[in-house]
Amino acid sequence: MSRRVLVLYCGGTIGMVPSLEGYVPQAGFGDRVRAELSGVAGQLPDYDLFELDQLIDSANLTPQDWSGIAGMLLAHWAGYDGFVLLHGTDTMAYTAAALSYMLLGADKPVILTGSQIPLGQPRNDALDNLTSALMLAANPAIAEVCIYFRGKLLRGNRARKVNSTAFEAFDSPNAPPLGQLGIELTLRDDLLLAPGQPDFRVPTFDPAAVVMLGLYPGIPARLVEAALDDPRVRGLILVSYGVGNPPDGDEALMAALGRAIERGVIVVNLTQCQQGPVCQGAYATGATLNRLGVVPGHDLTPEAAFAKLHFLLALDWPSEEIREVLPLPLCQECSLAP
Hints:
Elements: E1 4-9, H1 29-37, E2 46-51, H2 63-75, E3 82-86, H3 92-102, E4 110-113, H4 126-137, E5 145-149, E6 152-155, E7 160-161, E8 170-171, E9 179-181, E10 185-187, E11 210-214, H5 221-227, E12 235-240, H6 251-262, E13 266-271, H7 284-292, E14 295-296, H8 302-314, H9 319-325
Parallel strand pairs: 1-2, 1-3, 3-4, 4-5, 11-12, 12-13, 13-14
Antiparallel strand pairs: 5-6, 6-9, 7-8, 9-10
């Protein structure tokens, strides 16, 4: 294969090693990869592997890391036909979503993958995920940010980590896979994005700009107030019940949301359910959020909504424009609301 792929190792389980305190990141992963792939190197695309100077345990990821990762990809965009990003699984879906917005109009594949067991350990899933991701990153039919894991190619901004211990760790609950890898590779050409005209924007993210709050029975208004007491907070992801229902009988809670919206905070409403969209207003409780000015997030995943709101706020778009764009697909991260 003559196509060239850049592998960017950011950290994560795939390159970790055992220690007395559990798995930890370790430098020198490139040498271990080349040793593991030496027997099949002729069947894989040519690749270079770059390693971040400061490896990220993905549980420690912040929105600022998204800019650094995107900057690395853009610095090498012209020199490679595709990219593999090795990333920890805990926050992989957040990074995939953020990259999909920063790399709007991508004309090459960016494949995120990782593993549940490190490369070189017995029974690991790392080798298959890595070799498959390399082959997908060399496939000219793919021109978007995806996650590949355990035989499934998923749109990056539709994916979620759905299992903490199984090898089948990722799925896209509200969208079908873009491809399946068994004995043969089957791609859904009808779903894949066509190569676009790159419109890449890598803003500087403020980690404090967006907060996320899940509702539960008896949630006090003071939690909303505490989440929003930093003046840098400009967006709130509210994760509510069912089709987008809040406890509207709690007047203090609704008043706290109303005050936040009045001072310019953009509030997006998502569902706690794995599948299905927000239909804000299907019940009277949800209609209360409509009156307050909460934006219904339809079928955005929490990861995609969080990254999208961060991205739009970092671009300093006017609030009304952000509110209009949030429920609309920029790169097929959500469906059009009926």
